Amino acid sequence: MPTKSTGARGGRWTSDERQFVRNAYPALGPAAIARKLNRSRSGVCALIKRMKESGEIATAKSTAAGAGGDLSAPPADAPDGTQDTLGRLRWVRDLLTRHLYDAEPPQAARLASEYRAVVDEIDRLERQGGGGVDVH
Q: Does the model's pTM come out above 0.85?
């Protein structure tokens, strides 16, 4: 028999909440989803886990492909040794975007300034013709 300390605390997930999680994850992390739904982060994590297990939402491998690539590693260098600077900056921008969603206010302020600097550099390189390729 569940006790107060071991029983469910957040109540049932509504179909609207489940739909929001399905559409928002992984672009929004669990902390940001929890804030938007006024739920606990651990509750959102548990729901995401159950939804992944049931196939209701995609797993990490398929979401990385759908989000435009794997964010765990920067774009690979070309076979000739050139580095895609613009591609790497876009990768950093995407990482910062994901972290901004989960950041607490003090962290968000610091990340926002880094984000702005990266976006400004991407804009500068794109105005120059989008080269952004370094030879190393």
A: no
